[in-house]
Write a structure and sequence with these properties.
Mean pLDDT of chain B: 97
Helix content of chain A: under 10%
Largest interface: A-B, 23 and 25 residues
Strand content of chain A: over 45%
Distance between the termini of chain A: 40 Å
Structural class of chain B: mainly beta
Largest sheet of chain B: 7 strands, mixed
Low-confidence stretches of chain A: none
Number of helices of chain B: 0
Structural class of chain A: mainly beta
Radius of gyration of chain A: 14 Å
Distance between the termini of chain B: 36 Å
Shape of chain A: globular
Shape of chain B: globular
Order of helices and strands of chain B: EEEEEEEEEEE
Low-confidence stretches of chain B: none
Mean pLDDT of chain A: 97
Strand content of chain B: over 45%
Number of strands of chain A: 11
Number of strands of chain B: 11
Oligomer: heterodimer
Chain lengths: 121, 107
């Protein structure tokens, strides 16, 4: 079945960068947009951006431009998100989610379990 | 950006109740509205897409409605496994935006 396997928790120092991964299985990785969503502790969901693995095309939420960089490796069916210049506000759970198109509709039909990033000295 | 507002951040209901969760958009979104459920363990699942279409495998006690800027999710006959936080999400325009969530608890 379709699955998204995310990498494990990260503890990183302020000012550093971190790269988290999302390995897809059970579908044609190159043909669906992969999205990333942020959730701070006790807060709601915030869309960071998306990447189309087939050609590397990306779109970002303006709030995360310069903070997040999305890439994808078709050979391993893995999407990556690098977060740079980390501060305490970047401490959050980060989800990857597949976008699925159905006629004129679309939705995030499969979600990863989330990767917890903690920024602390 | 389109702002999505869920005015009720938490609500308490009894098993068997009918519950309605509301969501409003800062501008018309042409029914491009999805609903997601996040369980206490963090797991996120799609419930409803395009305002009122039930996602595969989702129990029929979940339903969605709305138009223009105002949308709602209804759970009829509340069951224990429905304890979760519910988010609306618009996909009319980038950036996609979510409501702040409504946490449902059992009374």
């Amino acid at each position: 079945q379709v699955q998204l396997q995310q990498s494990g928790p990260e503890l990183v120092k302020p000012g550093a960068s971190v790269k988290i991964s999302c390995k897809a299985s059970g579908y044609a990785f190159s043909s669906s947009w992969m999205n990333w969503v942020k959730q701070r502790p006790g807060q709601g969901l915030e869309w960071i951006g998306r990447i189309y693995p087939g050609d590397g095309d990306t779109n970002y939420n303006g709030k995360f431009k310069g903070k997040a960089t999305l890439t994808a490796d078709k050979s391993s069916s893995t999407a990556y998100m690098q977060l740079s210049s980390l501060t305490s506000v970047d401490s959050a759970v980060y989800f990857c989610a597949r976008k699925w198109d159905y006629g004129s509709s679309w939705y995030f039909d499969v979600w990863g379990a989330g990767t917890t990033v903690t920024v602390s000295s | 950006d389109i702002q999505m507002t869920q005015t009720t951040s938490s609500l308490s209901a009894s098993l068997g109740d009918r519950v309605t969760i509301s969501c409003s958009a800062s501008q018309g979104i042409s029914n491009y509205l999805n609903w997601y459920q996040q369980k206490p363990d963090g797991t996120v699942k799609l419930l409803i897409y395009y305002t009122s279409s039930l996602h595969s495998g989702v129990p029929s006690r979940f339903s969605g409605s709305g138009s223009g800027t105002d949308y709602s999710l209804t759970i009829s006959n509340l069951e224990p496994e429905d304890i979760a936080t519910y988010y609306c999400q618009q996909y009319s325009k980038l950036p996609y935006t979510f409501g702040g969530g409504t946490k449902l608890e059992i009374k």
